[in-house]
Write a structure and sequence with these properties.
232 residues, mainly alpha, Tetracycline Repressor, domain 2, 10 helices, globular
Length: 232
């Protein structure tokens, strides 16, 4: 089942998008902190994903949001504070969409197929998420460790995987010796690699990985691999 997900637009090779604060009928800016923060996070996500923590510049983020460094520091305290919020929002977004899959309404094997297919589609359609995770792994998780919410944000996906898996075991369709966290890791690893390594893999092995037929074949391969791994 091919889930439709909202894709982030890549920023490479095109002029950067500028976002502005809300304006009233007379053209004056209105005080809209939530929108201002959302605009800053949107632009900062692309900047940190593209350039990493060290390469991203608060001046550039301020210019693209037509705000000020002072305002960014007011909302997020520091460059590192903004970076941590970007990471939190990246995880919050995928977990929020996962919650809307309604896996509990599907038979266990179909639910697992939907979850794996969604993970593949989301990561393929949101390369900024992949780059952010790669950047933070280069920092060995140092900044994500500062988050007070990251653990809670990721509890639902483990619960969803566990629920699907345990229903499958109870129905006699899944084998009873798989750890749900390990299963989640395997799903993530297969889908993550498909995005993070596609350029080098394509170059080394002379494979055209971006055409629709190749994408569809790879998606089906990953879904089948996971399902056969847990099938009884």
């Amino acid at each position: 089942m091919n889930q439709t997900v909202q894709k982030e637009k890549p920023r490479r090779g095109r002029p950067p998008k500028q976002v502005v604060e809300a304006e009233g009928p007379d053209g004056t800016r209105t005080n809209d902190p939530e929108r201002t923060m959302a605009d800053i996070l949107e632009v900062a996500t692309a900047e940190f994903a593209d350039k990493g923590l060290a390469g991203a510049r608060i001046d550039e983020i301020a210019a693209l949001t037509r705000t000020s460094k002072r305002m960014i520091y007011y909302y997020f305290e520091s460059k590192e504070g903004l970076y941590v919020r970007v990471l939190e929002e990246a995880y919050r977004r995928i977990r929020r969409i996962e919650a809307d899959l309604h896996l509990e309404d599907l038979a266990p094997e179909q639910a697992l197929r939907v979850l794996v297919g969604f993970t593949f589609d989301y990561q393929l359609g949101n390369p900024d998420f992949i780059r952010l995770v790669m950047n933070e792994n280069m920092h060995r998780g140092e900044f994500l460790a500062r988050s007070s919410t990251i653990q809670d944000l990721n509890v639902p996906v483990i619960n969803a995987v566990r629920s699907v898996y345990e229903r499958g075991v109870a129905a006699g369709v899944f084998r009873p010796d798989v750890d749900p966290v390990d299963l989640h890791m395997s799903i993530s690893a297969l889908c993550f690699f498909n995005v993070s390594n596609r350029h080098t893999f394509s170059l080394i092995f002379k494979r055209e990985l971006d055409n629709p037929a190749a994408v569809a074949a790879r998606r089906e391969s990953i879904v089948e691999m996971v399902v056969r791994f847990v099938r009884r």
